[in-house]
Amino acid sequence: MKNVVLLGATGSIGTSSVDVIQQHSDLFHLYAVAANSSVNKVAEIVRKYNVERVCMFNEVAAKELEIVLGRKVLVGMEGLCELAADPKADIIINALMGAVGCLPTITAIEHGKHVALANKETMVMAGPVIWDKLAENPKSFITPIDSEHSAIFQCLEGGKRESEVEFLEITASGGPFREWPIEKFEKITVADALNHPVWSMGKKITIDSASMMNKGLEVLEAHFLFHIPYDQIKVVVHPQSMVHSLVQFRDGSLMAQLGAPDMRIPIQVALTWPDRLKLETKRLDLPTLAKLTFFEPDFNKFRCLALAFEAGRRGGIVPSMMNAANEVLVDRFLKGNLKFTDIPKYVEMVMEKAPNVTGHLSLEQVLEADKEARLMTEGFLK
Ligand SMILES: NC(=O)C1=CN([C@@H]2O[C@H](COP(=O)(O)OP(=O)(O)OC[C@H]3O[C@@H](n4cnc5c(N)ncnc54)[C@H](OP(=O)(O)O)[C@@H]3O)[C@@H](O)[C@H]2O)C=CC1
Ligand SMILES: CC(=O)[C@@H](O)[C@H](O)COP(=O)(O)O
Ligand SMILES: [Mn+2]
Asked: Where in this chain does the record put each 1-deoxy-D-xylulose 5-phosphate reductoisomerase C-terminal domain (predicted)?
């Protein structure tokens, strides 16, 4: 039996993870959960699945949950990291949203854990630091949950074939504005942007999908997960989201992973790899599938995608600053205080001010850059 710590248990990935764990309750025990402030949802999960340890990031919520459950609730970043380091934990699923996921991932690696990673922001902001930490802690390893990265991971047979890759082809749905003319972008509303054509996900990633920053983040995530240079990473728009990504090998073979758009599939792969267990979810029926289509992305319309490639190529603290600026801007947009077109505009302004840092990158530099970019973005918005 493997003890699973689920960080971000109340979210979209968290909920799907609970389902997968329950479908295999002979193999996995939901040992600990964490969230930000959803007290009732956490209380329900804890009671239903006999969860042993709990953390709430938000202090008030932690106190409230302690009263509801009548037992100790960990709190804040310290609490998240305590769960990530718990000696009884075998697998840490990081399904937190945003840069808050970075330190728990690093702590889990430092404690030799298997990290099943949905929190792409971790890899984007701190990729080189993660490389160092994994090298220092050879017992630890990451299995990706992000659907595209799971597809690539599977095509690479768990990373064994990285050196044989010609390029990675990351698929993108294109989001709700794939067919909108750029002239209409000024008028995009929050409701328009939350209307993802395929996936039902948390709000932040849904806005990122609409701006295609999500695909940009995924390019950096792929670079850091699979050690593939940016010149060998392509993005292809595939509106049906049935092909989750592809790997072109140097012998001319193009491998793809297909499946219904259901995150429980990559979550289960991340938990059970290299084994493939039964999962109750929809199957793709090829004869009844509609056409599968593929297009070049429009880098002019989706400026965030171009900016992310630029941030990746510049390296250093630029990805951390880009990610932080984007988080602030998406939050403002969701609150109705920013135009959709202001997201790439201000991300670019922050990136222009970002210094090029060469040489070894430390965790302190990454976290400082994150803080600095948030302040800078707020400053631009005043
Ligand atoms: N949803 C999807 O299909 C996919 C998501 N991902 C990635 O997975 C991650 C999670 O996404 P998703 O599930 O959609 O997000 P959601 O917004 O649905 O859920 C986020 C979870 O994180 C918790 N959380 C948010 N902020 C904090 C904080 N400061 N401290 C502790 N917990 C916090 C929330 O708790 P609370 O409920 O209390 O707010 C919630 O449990 C993201 O990095 C996303 O990019 C990747 C691929 C697909
Ligand atoms: C399910 C998943 O992995 C998301 O990251 C998804 O890819 C978002 O859709 P887009 O392709 O529109 O960004
Ligand atoms: Mn994805």
From this structure: 142-226
Q: Which of the 8 DSSP states describes residue 279?
A: -
Q: Give the closest residue (by CA) to ligand 1 atom 19.
A: 11
pLDDT tens readout for residues 54-83: 999 999 999 999 999 999 999 999 999 999
Predicted structure pTM score: 0.98
Which residues, in sequence order, are CB contacts of 64 under 8 Å at separation 6+?
39
**Helical H segments across the chain, by residue range:** 12-23, 39-49, 59-69, 76-84, 102-110, 120-136, 147-155, 190-193, 203-211, 213-226, 264-272, 303-314, 318-334, 342-353, 363-381
The stretch 313-323 carries a mean pLDDT of 98
Alpha-carbon distance 263 to 244, whole Å? 11
C-alpha to C-alpha distance for 117 and 148, rounded to whole angstroms: 12
Q: What is the pLDDT of residue 191?
A: 98
Tokens linked to 357: 């840092």
Residue from 97, 120, 206 to probe ligand 1 pocket by mutation (most atoms less than 8 Å from CB):
97
All domains of the chain, ordered by start, with CATH?
A: 1-143 (3.40.50.720)
pLDDT score recorded for residue 373: 98
pLDDT score for 293: 96
Identify whether the C-beta of residue 66 lies closer than 8 Å to the C-beta of residue 323: no
In this structure, the residues whose C-beta lies within 6 A of any atom of ligand 2 are 146-148, 172-173, 175, 199, 209, 214-215, 263
Residues with CB under 6 A from ligand 1: 8-14, 34-38, 57, 95-97, 100, 118-121, 146, 199, 201-202, 204-205, 263
Are the CB atoms for 165 and 214 separated by under 8 Å? no
Flag whether pLDDT at 353 surpasses 90. Answer: yes
ipTM of the complex: 0.99
Question: Residue 82 annotated as binding?
Answer: no
Ligand 1 atom at shortest distance from the alpha carbon of 205: 45
User: Tell me: the pLDDT tens digits for 265-314?
Assistant: 999 999 999 999 999 999 999 888 879 999 999 999 999 999 999 999 99
Spatial separation of the C-alpha atoms in residues 162 and 159, rounded to whole Å: 6
For the cut 90, the answer to whether the pLDDT of residue 100 exceeds it is yes
CA-based nearest residue to 185, from 211, 213, 204, 216: 211
CA 81, CA 55: separation in Å to the nearest integer? 10
